[in-house]
Design brief:
Structural class: alpha+beta
Number of strands: 9
CATH topology of one domain: Immunoglobulin-like
Distance between the termini: 55 Å
Strand content: 15-25%
Order of helices and strands: HHHHHHEEEEEEEEE
Number of helices: 6
Radius of gyration: 38 Å
Length: 252
């Protein structure tokens, strides 16, 4: 029977390390500003109670580092066992509509036959009247007056312009060098989601589905932030803070 030496119980080891240090969830919450219900979810490995994968990894790294453990090791273990991998959605096939046959069938075909027969009888009767004996007037042609009713053009329904949905995810890229980042939910006093150095050439996806993110940037000239594929402007020229929202960057 094979055994993976790296596999361990994430939640149980976090709880054991906290208890060994004589800490309560309230003590941890006050120290790292992560709500106790999220700490309990981490210790019970109930990932569905957390806001999303980005938050799971950020909370794991912060909690493990606070307890003196290797935060990266816990994130790697989560990625290898629990991380979700998106699969491309298949486009549903459009049902084929039957092509209507010209001429119709059943009652419609019978009605057309009756109309044609009436038209033939009327034509024959008119021809006989024009050919009757004793008539001195030349045959008169039967003309059919066609009247076209003038109808006002139908008004096109007013269509409201569609407003594009704001993007809910952003990408932080260390394009020109290593960049230290501190990311918190909502404001500078919000829960800590990420605190580490992002190596040059690597990127960090973040979610804005639960509100804006407060970000402290150690080396702004080395960092690019893309929102919905668009490169944002407005980063400070030196170490500073910004507020990343679904509309863009704001000073913080």
């Amino acid at each position: 029977m094979s055994h993976n030496p790296r596999m361990f119980e994430i939640g149980a080891s976090l709880r054991e390390a906290r208890i060994k240090r004589g800490l309560t969830p309230a003590d941890v919450q006050q120290a790292i500003r992560i709500r106790d219900r999220y700490l309990q979810a981490l210790e019970e490995e109930r990932w569905e109670l957390l806001p999303g994968e980005v938050y799971v990894k950020g909370f794991l790294r912060t909690y493990a580092d606070f307890l003196g453990l290797d935060g990266n090791l816990y994130v790697d273990e989560y990625n290898s066992r629990f991380a979700q991998r998106d699969e491309p959605a298949l486009a549903p096939e459009r049902p084929l509509r039957p092509v209507p046959r010209l001429g119709g069938s059943g009652p419609l075909r019978s009605a057309l036959a009756v109309v044609a027969l009436v038209a033939i009888v009327a034509g024959v009767a008119a021809w006989r009247l024009t050919r009757s004996p004793g008539s001195s007037s030349p045959p008169q042609s039967v003309s059919t007056a066609t009247t076209t009713s003038s109808k006002p053009p139908a008004k096109k329904p007013h269509r409201h312009p569609r407003v594009a949905a704001l993007p809910s995810r952003a990408l932080l890229v260390a394009s020109r060098g290593n960049c230290w980042l501190e990311i918190r939910q909502g404001s500078a006093s919000g829960p800590l989601l990420y605190e580490d150095t992002l190596p040059q050439g690597q990127s960090l996806p973040v979610s804005l589905a639960h509100g804006p993110l407060w970000i402290r940037i150690g080396d702004p000239p080395s960092l690019d932030i893309r929102l919905g594929g668009k490169l944002l402007t407005g980063l400070p020229t030196q170490t500073g803070n910004v507020l990343l929202t679904r509309r863009g960057l704001e000073p913080a």
